[in-house]
Amino acid sequence: MGNKQEEKIRNFPPKKIKKLAKRFKRLDRDKNNVLTIDEFFAIPEFNENPLKYQILKLFDPDSEDPDLIQVDFTKFIQTITTMVLGTEEEKLHFLFRILDLDGDGFIDQNELFELLYSIIGDQVSSEVLHEICQNMIKEFDLARNDVISFEEFQILMKNEKISKQIQIHV
Ligand SMILES: [Ca+2]
Ligand SMILES: [Ca+2]
Ligand SMILES: [Ca+2]
Predict the structure, then answer these.
(1) Distance CA 85, CA 95 (A)
(2) Which residue numbers delimit the EF-hand domain (predicted)?
């Protein structure tokens, strides 16, 4: 990241940065200059996002536990600039990291299940959901190792129906 990130932030319109700084201040309710989980969850749209815990991980990749995240303004703005100004591939990487819950670099059936469950919820039985996951993995697991790699994920996301379902809104 490093320089590339900084360059991106420089390219971010100063007006927008000012706006983000304002937003950061507003979100930082206890004025300690870091955002914590309760401050993020105070944003209603964010709180409703089924992927909120995974999204929090992106803001503070160093912290293992989303409950303990500490997001200072630099991290805040870096994450948002990547989400907004990142290339298609960077954005997909972001999403992949959200879905790869254990961070092993692959999406397995359980992680896919978690994702679909967070989107579909109780509308279908867990048996049906497991079956859907199995079929999805079968369809996109080109290397036949029962997990989805980033390369396979890129192909999966070209499928419009799926990508529409898992867009991130922050
Ligand atoms: Ca705070
Ligand atoms: Ca994984
Ligand atoms: Ca695979």
Answers:
(1) 14
(2) 15-50, 87-122, 128-163
- Distance (Å, whole) CA 13 – CA 94: 22
CA trace torsion 63, 55, 66, 37 (10° rounding): 120
Question: In the chain, what are the domain boundaries?
Answer: 1-86, 88-170
* 1-86: CATH number: 1.10.238.10
Quote the pTM value. 0.70
C-alpha of residue 32 to centroid of ligand 1, in Å: 5
Query: Per residue in 65-100, pLDDT tens?
Result: 889 999 999 999 988 888 888 888 888 888 898 889
| Residue 100 CA to ligand 2 centre (angstroms) | 4
How many residues in the chain? Answer: 170
Which overall architecture, per CATH, does domain 88-170 show? Orthogonal Bundle (1.10)
